[in-house]
């Protein structure tokens, strides 16, 4: 049980770290994705570089 609580805390902290990048992407009408679709441009990164901001 203690291991699950620790794992949940680590995941929660990682999600919070990626929030400012994601918010900035969404405010510029972008979406955070692993790969951009055919008609989208790669504008930046989200979630500490794990995702791309596609617009």
From TrEMBL:
Alphabetical list of InterPro entries matching this protein? Defensin_beta-like (IPR001855)
Pfam families, per the entry: Defensin_beta
Where would one find the signal peptide in this protein?
1-18
The answer to whether keyword Signal applies is: yes
Q: Which key words are in the record? A: Antibiotic, Antimicrobial, Defensin, Disulfide bond, Secreted, Signal
> Has the keyword Repeat been applied to this entry?
no
Question: What are the Beta-defensin-like domain coordinates in residue numbering?
Answer: 21-55
Principal subcellular localization: cytoplasm
Q: Which GO terms describe its biological process?
A: defense response to Gram-negative bacterium; defense response to Gram-positive bacterium; innate immune response in mucosa
Which cellular compartments is it found in? Cytoplasmic granule; Secreted
Q: Which domain of life is it from?
A: Eukaryota
Q: Which residues form a coiled coil?
A: none
In its UniProt record, a GO molecular function of this protein is: CCR6 chemokine receptor binding
Q: What cellular component GO annotations does this protein have?
A: extracellular space
The entry's family comment says: Belongs to the beta-defensin family.
What's the protein called, per UniProt?
A: Beta-defensin-like domain-containing protein
């Amino acid at each position: 049980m203690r291991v699950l609580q620790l794992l949940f805390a680590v995941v929660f902290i990682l999600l919070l770290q990626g929030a400012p990048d994601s918010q900035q992407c969404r405010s510029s009408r972008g979406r955070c994705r692993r790969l951009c679709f055919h008609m989208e441009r790669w504008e930046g990164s989200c979630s500490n570089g794990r995702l791309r901001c596609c617009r």
